[in-house]
Amino acid sequence: MEWQHQVEIKILNKNATSMGIIIRDADVALVNALRRIALAEVPSMAIDEVVIIDNSSILQDEIIAHRLGLTPLKTDLDSYNLPEDCECKSEFGCNLCRVTFTLDAEANEGTRTVYSGELVSENPEIVPVSDKIPIIKLAKGQKLKLEAYARLGKGKNHAKWQPVSTCAYKYFPKIEVANEKCDGCARCVAICPKKVLAIKENKLVVRDLLACNLCMDCVEACPQKPPAIKVTWEKNAFVMSIESTGALPPERIIQEAAKILDKQLKEFEEQVKVEVK
Fold first, then answer.
1. Distance separating alpha carbons of residues 259 and 263, to the nearest angstrom
2. Residues 6 or more apart from 104 whose CB is under 8 A from it?
3. Of 164, 170, 166, 125, nearest to 245 (Cα)?
4. Rounded distance, CA 148 to CA 53, Å?
5. What is the DSSP letter of 162?
6. Cα–Cα distances in angstroms (integers) from residue 196 to residues 191, 213, 263, in the given order
């Protein structure tokens, strides 16, 4: 299935874990599909099974396993398979669908905190996104020794496999100011929670258009009838923000979401053809 037109995408800002983009010539169905797929379908790596060898801490094994599962891991989608797609077909996995971690910590001199950086991975590319995530606190003489197995998974099965912490979109805002009606009272400037507006040279100006969340507080605050400010949005333009957990770069998440959507549409098209026959 081919798109009827070309979607225009512009990057607003980007760093290692977050990205903002403008999508034009699209509709709500497409943008929301990308958002939902990023949340639920794009795979990422997470610890799925933990074998406790020695635990003399105050925390139960299940709590430690839960904390390890929610520790974000850097993910390599090109080198590993989803367990259900791996040729090994083993419940234990293989080196193409599983990564083994070990942890051997002990408090010898006094109370100490065990951090994610102490997890030893068999693959130096698959490690926690931060070395400073606390796992457990050990009192003097306490030990924690374990093996953990990480696998690719999808957010629709468990939140620990979600590659994004935030993925949201809004309409691209449009703000029109009728300066011939505006008396410069600045009520709209004061009430705006995002500081979108400002008064310059006794005129109302838009300071930061993309910060507008379309709350309409500025319109309601205007004493003029009709209001001197009008807030609307572009029907086929959206601002999307993606914040990664660190498992994958934000641009890779959107790319994978687009690939999955394309695959799902092709499968749907084939099913429709079969039903018609």
1. 6
2. 144, 145
3. 164
4. 11
5. -
6. 10, 9, 40
Nearest C-alpha neighbor of 246 from the set 4, 30, 16, 92: 16
- Give CA 83 to chain center in angstroms: 22
CA atoms of 154 and 9, how far apart (whole Å): 26
Output the CA angle 43-44-46, nearest 5 degrees: 130
For residues 89 and 257, what is the distance between their CA atoms, to the nearest angstrom?
Answer: 26
Number of residues that this document lists for the chain:
277
Let me know: does 245 contact 160? Beta carbons within 8 Å.
Answer: no
Location of structure tokens 């070395």: 131
Contact assessment for residue 139 and residue 72, using Cβ atoms and an 8 Å cutoff:
no
This prediction has a pTM of 0.87
For residue 167, what are its two tokens? Answer: 């993925």
Question: What are 77-110's pLDDT values in tens digits?
Answer: 999 999 999 999 888 899 999 999 999 999 999 9
pLDDT for 276: 65
For residue 150, count other CB atoms closer than 10 A to its CB: 28
Q: What is the residue-averaged pLDDT of the chain? A: 93
Count other Cβ atoms within 10 Å, centred on residue 67: 17
Kindly report the CA angle at 44 between 41 and 46, in degrees rounded to 5? Answer: 125
Alpha-helical regions (H) of 41-116: 61-69
Burial of 217 (0-12, 13-18, 19+ CB in 10 A): middle
